[in-house]
Amino acid sequence: MRINEERLRQRMDRINAIAVTEEDGMMRLALSDADREARDLLVSWMEEAGMSVRIDDMGTVYGVMKGTDEKALPICVGSHMDTQPNGGKYDGFFGVMAGLEAILSIKESGLELDSDLILADWTNEEGARFVPPMLASGVNAGVFDPQWVYDREDTEGVRYEDELKRIGYQGEKENRLTKAKAYLEPHIEQGPVLDAKGLSCGIVTGALGITGLDITISGEANHAGTTPMSHRKDALVAAAEAISRIRKNCIDFGEPAVITNGIINAQPASKNIVPGTVYFSIDLRYHTDEGMAELEQQTKDIIQKTCDEFGVSVQIEQYWRAKPAVFNETIVGCVEEAANEKNLPAMRIISGAGHDAVFISEIIPTGMIFVPSIKGMSHCPQENTKWEDLVAGTELTADVLVKLDKETI
Fold this sequence. Notes:
Layout: H1 5-15, H2 33-48, E1 52-55, E2 61-65, E3 75-80, H3 93-109, E4 117-122, H4 135-140, H5 146-150, H6 160-166, E5 182-188, H7 193-197, E6 201-207, E7 209-218, E8 222-223, H8 235-253, E9 258-260, E10 264-267, E11 273-274, E12 277-286, H9 289-310, E13 313-322, E14 325-326, H10 329-341, E15 346-351, H11 356-360, E16 366-371, H12 387-406
Parallel strand pairs: 3-4, 3-5, 5-16, 6-15
Antiparallel strand pairs: 1-2, 2-4, 6-14, 6-16, 7-12, 7-13, 8-11, 9-12, 10-12
Helix pairs in contact: 1-3, 3-12, 8-9, 10-12
């Protein structure tokens, strides 16, 4: 399948010209004015292509290209267009553009598929504005309660539902994608493996599970000069020791276990006051349910023991969890077969990042395609992928959609 490279390039450039930061990063936060502008363009391109457009109650946009068999289950392809603050040009967005171009190329080739082809742009995959990530796909999969999602607030206290209404993208519950033959998500790898190995394609077999924890350590704020070291209950020192210990434990646990402390706040945040309260975040990832549960418990135990040693108290809360995903072997096989037919250097790979595909895989047979990320850079302005790899990934997406139409899943 050949695609229209110039059309793909022009459309990607058009949306990537929206809300560019001083560092040349992207700032299309979910349900922002920039997100609305990108959505409006996507909808216009869907309608121009003859696709019918529907929007669900979480704001996810679907474009439908009709197939020839009304009884056939649809095949869905897509990703998300929201970005991290000062994020990259391809994370999520490539999957939407690749899906759109693949569907158009199939139509223009004259091929008639039995199944409807549906392009999906999921809302708030990043979780950069409304925490946690993957909110819309999580509602589709029954992981999150819709009202709970509506009540999520950003750092300024603005509700998800209010912003959904403000930008004009609150649709109907009946429009949710809950039943399909297959869901395919093209994506950049966001890691260094494919680039380091000189490969053009990642055949994604699943994704690491993710556990998010909020840790609040409470000690005693006191004067920096008059409080002897032996009398201190320093929450920051306890937090620093705990973070060091849980990092070492994660390394000892073995790959692919990873731990990240992305946020740390000390209060009352004065240079001459012993910190009385410290908050820090934990992002834990592993590839099996059993291993994830064990690693999470070990992490909690280490934090509690450390706080006991330092005479401070701790509160540990789990703010979200995504189970490890295992993708459908038939779809994985279709991706592998199509890559081989195109002579694309490829390998099977597990995703270290969370994707809408993780939640959707709980209700619909799912697979993913990875294209390389140069030096593994992502969630930053330096995020980049060679143009030839974007083209190959888009053509591969079209080939796989055609294969899935004839496949029994």
